[in-house]
Amino acid sequence: MLLATAGAAFAEEAPAEEAAPAPQSPAPSADGRVIYDGAFFARFAPQTANDMVARVPGFTLDEGDDRRGFSGAVGNVLIDGRRPSAKSQSLSSILSRIPASQVAHIELIRDAADTADAAGQSTLVNVVRTPSGGSGVWEAEVQGTEGPRYMPRGEASWSGRFGQLDYSVGASHYSEYRPLDGGRTVRDSAGGLIQRRDDITPRTYFEDSANGDMTFPLAGGSLRVNGQIAYWDFQTVLWSPSFNPAGAPTDDFVFDFHEREQTEEVGFNFDRSFGRVNLELIGLATRRNYNTDESTAFRDEAGAFLGELAQVRRNESGETILRGTLSWPLAPYARFDIGGEAAFNSLDAGLALTEDLGAGPVPVPLPSANVLVEEERAEAFATLVVRPSPRWTIDATLAGETSTLTQTGDTNLETELAYIKPSIQATRRIGARNQVRVRFYRDVDQLDFGDFVSAAGLADDIVFGGNPNLRPETSWRLEAAGDWRYGGDGAISLRAYRHWLEDASDVVPVGPPGMQFDAPGNIGDGWLQGLELNATIPLGFLLPHSRLTLTAVTEESEVTDPATGRPRDISGWRQSRVEGNFRQDLTAQKLAWGIFFYKEAENVTYRLNELDTYEEGPFVDLWVETTAVPNVKIRVYGANLTANDFVRERRFFTPDRNGALDRVEERRRNFGPLWGVRISGTL
Q1: 3 state SS of 672
Q2: Lowest-confidence region among 65-74, 90-99, 165-174
Q3: Counting C-beta atoms within 10 Å of the first and last residue's C-beta, which end of the chain has fewer, N or C?
Q4: Residue 116: pLDDT band by 50, 70, 90 thresholds?
């Protein structure tokens, strides 16, 4: 998890260059947006738009999720009123390429009904840029781990203008090393020790990318074109010697794993007004080439070869989207949008699995391992936004989609899908800065084409089956939320929600009796409900110029287990998580410091004959930052200071989970504390 949370832990934050007055309460605009100008962010000395968005009170960046289509999958950030026409690039990386000097102000849009590009989100921010260009940002970092080993990172971008052409270019390099060492024990059903293993597993990851975009007038409107090419590479070797209860060596295995992916993406966004009507066209094309080579070699206690499993995977995937929207005002307090979207997705998956027992590699067939999956999808939608009074907003949408899913190769199957997706949201403003809202809608999850394809998990001795009969999970969702603002930057947002699930996605057994294995599948109806809190709490009464940002989520779910017939949670679902960021700005000393905390509850995956429980954290990080050098930030940090274990427990049953407990395997690993120095500046 720290690979994902470390970036959040070290979000770009900086103390002010000089003492700043207490922030003033931002005034809401006539349509309810809360506007934060440059003066609000000055005490943090932001260098990029990402620095500024991270400081918007009560707002949490959403990088996007698995909803089908373009608008629901690209997060909750607008740039100059439009969503970035990109899916392979994270919002935080896009924002990090926009210098803070080019941000005029940031708008917090809380009812999301006054913009045609807000579908799928109830809260967004709009980064409004200045018309000026000709500036850049850069960053250089080195991170150390136990060993020690030091890994470099860096990125730079430049934004400029040439006549009526606005442009930006950027490049980045990222690397990390994680010696995720530990061990595991295997015990019988009575708790007696059967076996102990040591796990020695260094892990290395590299990622490089180059990107650019340009905006210019075209055909009476404005065209923005953007593109990126990226490549990442991950390698690990796991050596796992085994010992009997007396401590004598018994055998070992070596797992060698190498995966890499190259992605190319190009997108465009065209806007033009025809009188009162506005046209927006979005196009996006993404191509990915993913490859893995892995093997597990087994040896006895004397080091003699026992056998080897080897697997090669070659996957080529693509996504092409074209979306158009017409929007026009019907009256001073009403707006109507109509549009459509067409998409083509594909995955060409190839796999070769072999077993060598000493006489040479022998192919091992897996069902649904070599498959071409293609989906053609079309969607139409209409939205009506009405403001019956200055305090009320009603947002109603009716969308419908149809798609054809085709599988050829090891599986030959064609599936027709169709869904109606209504949505209605009511928002009520309370006072000048507060609001409540209620939304009821139907949602359709995006299919992961990799779930149609079988593969072997060599390190875990598991076959991940492909399921050709998989369908998208759908749900009816009810959400109620409140947003309250107080003081200069205090904010509390609370959201309660309930999802009624149909065709719930989980793990199901596939294959004939006696030869079954686990695969993604649909297990009928279920439900999920939860409560989410986002808060920005000024703590000046405890420490001057300090504040705490907090995100806490608690959830519960229920589906019917296909193996036991009993109710249980959704596989792999975390019931709770909490994330906190404390920071204090010592403005006179041009210094800031902070603490990051993250913890999530354990999650359980329910396989055919196994309960797989995983837990990690808590993670605690500490950083100190200075802006004593003009136009430069210097940050020193320590991450994973508590060095908690990554814990995985696998409970095996015979012949399946309806039977008796056979054995229990517990694995504990830890990559230890991390430390680093980051220097960034403006050009």
Answers
A1: coil
A2: 65-74
A3: C
A4: low
Q: Which amino acid is at 372?
A: L
Question: What single string gives the DSSP state of each residue in 389-445?
Answer: ETTEEEEEEEEEEEEEEEEEES--EEEEEEEEEEEEEEEEEETTTEEEEEEEEEEEB
**CA–CA gap between residue 410 and residue 349 (Å, rounded):** 10
CB burial string 210-225: b at 16+ within 10 A, e below: ebbbebeeeeeebbbb
Instruction: List strand residue ranges (DSSP E) for 332-370, in order.
Output: 334-356, 361-363
> What span, in angstroms and rounded, lies between the C-alpha atoms of 638 and 472?
42
Looking at residue 7, what is its pLDDT? 32
Which domains does the chain carry?
2-682 (2.40.170.20)
- State how far the Cα of 300 lies from the Cα of 302, in Å rounded to an integer: 5
Tell me how far the alpha carbon of residue 166 is from its chain's centroid.
29
Q: Which residues pair with 550 in a beta bridge?
A: 535, 580
Nearest-angstrom CA–CA distance, 620 and 597: 5
Two tokens, residue 307: 């056998």
pTM of this structure: 0.86
CA angle, residues 44, 47, 52, in degrees to nearest 5: 55
E runs forming strands in 130-248? 135-145, 149-162, 165-179, 181-188, 193-199, 202-218, 221-243
Three-state DSSP class for 450? helix
State how far the Cα of 280 lies from the Cα of 265, in Å rounded to an integer. Answer: 20
Strand partners, 635: 625, 678
